[in-house]
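We treat protein structure as text, and this decision shapes the records that our systems exchange. The tokens are whole numbers drawn from a learned vocabulary of local backbone shapes. One such record is reproduced below, unchanged from the form in which we store it:
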Amino acid sequence: MRRTQSARRGNAVMEVAMITVPLFGLLFGIFDFGYAVFLRSCLQNAVREGVRYAVTYQTVSPSTCQDESIKQQVRWGGMGFLSAPANYDKIKVRYYDPATFTEILAPGGNAPGNVVEVSVENYQHRWLVPLYWPSTPIVMNIRSSDRMEGTPATGAPCR
């Protein structure tokens, strides 16, 4: 039996479909994973910048306290990922006593010598192209810390 031209064309269409579907799945998976790595890197840089901002006792304006200024700096450095109001509560600023490693909740926690920790907690990244159902989000917890420097001549700002 001879194969006709249309039968050969039908085989070609099936071969292309059988190759492109897994290929696109693989490409979208690589893109999605790369995007998650990029997101984590951006948030880590934003948190690091927030800590650097904290240890130098800077504030956005004279009327803004230090914790809110640090959070604002992290939002600015987050490349828009933290700009939604739902993400404001995910940014945490904590101060620790370096001798006992206990959290300082008192207003003077930003004293020189204490450790400041800036973190983004429970940030959820949903896959752009969920290749399986149901899609579970990636939960990211990013932290950075450093020791507070000496206070400026004007004294430590409000916390």
